Amino acid sequence: MVEEKKINGRSEGITRGWALLAMLCLSPVFFLSIYFGHVKEGVGGWICTGMVVVTAKTQWHLRGHAWYWVVVILALLTQIPLVLFVPWDNRHLSFVSLLPVGVLDYVIVYGSFKFLEKLE
User: Fold this and answer.
1) I need a surface site. Which of 23, 52, 61, 116 has the fewest CB within 10 A?
2) Secondary structure class of 6 (helix, strand, coil)
C-alpha cells in the first residue's frame, strides 16, 4: 500500500523523518486537549489525526484534485466519534488491542481515495 517513489533523487514515500515531523506538527492537537483537560482524548485525537495525515501522504500525487481535499476533511471529521467514544483511559487498551482499529481506519481512508480515483 505504501509505495516509495524517487523523484529527482528524493524519496516521495513516508520516511521516519517525515513521520516524526508530521507528528510534531500535529502535537498542537494533543496540547490543546491538555489545555481543556482531556489528556486521554488528546492522545487518541493525535493518533487518529496522524493516521489520516499518513494516509493522505501516501496519496499525495492526487492533491491537485478537489475531491482529494474533500476526502481528507471527511476523514478527519469521521475521526471525531472514534476519539470521543473509545475509552482511552482504559488500562486494558494496549497498542496491540488498538492496532486492528488503526489498520481498519487506514484501510477505510485509503479505500476512499482509491474509490474516488477509479471514479475519475
Assistant:
1) 61
2) strand
Q: What pLDDT is stored for residue 11 in this prediction?
A: 54
Return the SS3 of 7: strand
Taking Cα atoms as reference points, which of 27, 35, 33, 51 lies closest to residue 88?
Answer: 33
Task: Tell me, yes or no, whether 1 lies in a domain.
Answer: no
What does the pLDDT look like over 30-48, one tens digit per residue?
899 889 888 888 888 888 8
Task: Round to whole Å and give the CA distance between 107 and 86.
Answer: 19
Overall number of domains in the chain: 1
Q: Is the pTM of this model over 0.90?
A: no
> Per the structure block, which three cell numbers stand in for 38?
482531556
pLDDT at residue 114 greater than cutoff 90: yes
Q: How far apart are the first and last CA of the chain?
A: 20
Map residue 11 onto helix, strand or coil.
strand
Q: Is 52 contained in some domain?
A: yes
How much is the CA Rg of the chain, to the nearest whole Å?
15
DSSP string, 47-72: HHHHHHHHHHHHTGGGTTSHHHHHHH
Range of the domain at 20: 6-119
